[in-house]
Amino acid sequence: MQPQAGEVALSSGLRHAYLLVGPPQVGKTTLARVFAQAVLCQGEGVRPCGRCRSCGLMGKGSHPDFRLIQPTDRDGHPDRANGTLRVEQAADIIHEASLRPVESASKFFLIQDFHTANDSFANKLLKTLEEPPPHVILCLTALSRQDVLPTIASRCQVLELRPLPLEEVRAALETQWQVEPAQAELLARLSQGRLGWAVRYLQDGEAAAARQEQLSQLAQLVVADRVERLQFAEKLASQRDDPQLFALLEGWTLWWRDVMLAQAGCLEECNNVDHLEIIQQHARQLSPQAVRTYVQTLGRVASYLRHTVNKRLALDVLLLQMPRAKAS
Q: What is the pTM of this model?
């Protein structure tokens, strides 16, 4: 599949700048790397050929004409979780873009998570996006077009990546990663069509245990009183790992959507297929209106938390509004 992806991009003619948008772990970076390998490939015929010196250097992560730019913390260390694309990095890109390629006919810059760029970074890079040197290709990734300044997006060819059908994710897990059918089915559903998410879950030795703990906490919170819920909100607010918090909210959202589906008689559409008994229990005990309202609340709070808000207050509201069932 990789050569085909590169071949299509090259056969349609190269642009000087691309913007790949889509949800986390949907495959933006994977596609960008394959595209870069195809652009820099020195082989004949279908590209990337996977055999030439350039492809070998890309495989080792050492191609001198490929540059990966990631958000960093204040000390300049890569930090995709909480970092920012900074003006100093834009200056480096501009300088390197002015230099001729070393190995290939082009230089390829992959700028990840452009939605984290501060205005200084974006404005400094604008001139290079408008009139880059003829040997330069810039590829940006972001969560959505709306997260990128219009002046930046308008100078790029925008490609929107959507989640894969669940059947394709399941088949890929079974054939390429030798995952058992039941596990592949579960991961395909939990991934919501994001193959990258499913693969990372497989590679993370603690992911399964973390998910079980997450669902166990949720089961306890459903029957907990106000004091216990506020204590949990305080614990969440004190943690500085925002990606972990958003992963928790995503897991909760999937769970409550499953409860809503069960209440609508669509149990076969649920994602947490290994916990259908508890999902059905919640579906019987809780008001459908309360569940629907809470799914909406989860979405709003997750959006608020991505911006400057009172984190503790938002989590207090989230925990207090969670539907409550009677303890068995």
A: 0.76
